[in-house]
Amino acid sequence: MRQAFNVGVVIVLALLLGNRVMTRVQAHESGSLTCSKGSELVRLDALARGFTAVGARSQGENFLSSCLVSGQAQVGDIVAHD
After folding, report:
1. What gap in Å lies between CA 81 and CA 23, rounded to an integer?
2. What is the pLDDT of residue 7?
3. DSSP string spanning 20-71?
4. CB 65, CB 38: distance < 8 Å
5. pTM beyond 0.85, yes or no
6. Residue 77 and residue 38: Cα distance in Å, rounded?
7. Could you tell me if 69 and 79 are in contact, meaning their C-beta atoms sit under 8 angstroms apart?
8. Closest Cα partner for 80 from 59, 63, 62?
9. Residue 42, exposed/middle/buried by CB under 10 A (0-12, 13-18, 19+)?
10. Among 15, 54, 64, 68, which one has the highest count of C-beta atoms within 10 angstroms of its own C-beta?
11. SS3 of residue 77 by DSSP
């Protein structure tokens, strides 16, 4: 039972590490953005949609927070990475 648990933990860690490696590889592609630039795009898009300056800034900050925590986020068809 304990051995099965240890194998499960190793598999989960390997999957997380593999995901992080793929994120780093994708970050160096030509069509990618940093999280901060993606946040600015989200803020400008929110302003264009009629949000107030405070609401648009809040949406940009939410995007930035999500992007930094997960390591990646999507702005339209473009993927932003930390």
Report:
1. 7
2. 92
3. HHHHHHHHTSTT-EEHHHHHHHHHHHHHHTT--HHHHHHHHHHHHHHHHHHS
4. no
5. no
6. 11
7. no
8. 63
9. buried
10. 64
11. coil
